[in-house]
Amino acid sequence: MSAIRFDLSRYLPYLLNRAGVRIALAFTDEIRRFGISLPMWRVLAQLWHADFQRQSDISERTTIEPATLSRLLRSIEAKGLIVRTRSPTNGREVGVALTKEGRALTKRILPIAVRYEALAAGTIPSDKINMVKDVLIEIYRNIASYHDALKGRQENTVAATQNKRLRHKTEKRRHGTRAIRISAP
Predict the structure, then answer these.
(1) What is the strand order of the sheet 94-98 is part of?
(2) Digits of tens for pLDDT over the chain (185 positions)?
(3) What's the CA angle centered on 166, arms 160 and 169, to 5 degrees?
(4) Which CATH number is correct for 8-122, 3.40.50.2300, 3.30.930.10, 3.20.20.370, 1.10.10.10?
(5) For the chain, what are the domain ranges?
């Protein structure tokens, strides 16, 4: 049996995380003076592109889980940087927009974000940086696709297990075991 060759220092997920964490730590130190966190910044930056967005779209675009995003939006709203409103056409949908203060703060932080991108790029030519960006987008799509498929298989496994339990309980009823009412989830 041959040993698996593995070098953490050349492992793509490790390298992506390592670079991302380093940039995030330094950038977070700089934006802390504005009273916001990195996840808050990601929301503000996303809203900068299109001022009124559905909460579900922000979650998807920032890769912040919906429950976490909901709490985060409450914090940002309490700071007066965003406003949330229910959709007039769908009462379950929540739209989010920057306030005047939120737009002004985002405008102040944008040059810092641009500077960090330039620092990360260093002397790497712009065509290579653009290629890296394209590759990172593709890596994200690859993993998202795999993860979605994996979640689908897990959901199918859970459903199959629940159906098996339901069939087992139904069999018990048929064979004279106490009668119980079963409802499928």
Answers:
(1) 53-54, 94-98, 82-86
(2) 678 999 999 999 999 999 999 999 999 999 999 999 999 999 999 999 887 899 999 999 999 999 999 999 999 999 999 999 987 788 788 899 999 999 999 999 999 999 999 999 999 999 999 999 999 999 999 999 998 888 887 776 666 666 666 655 555 555 555 444 444 44
(3) 145
(4) 1.10.10.10
(5) 8-122, 124-185
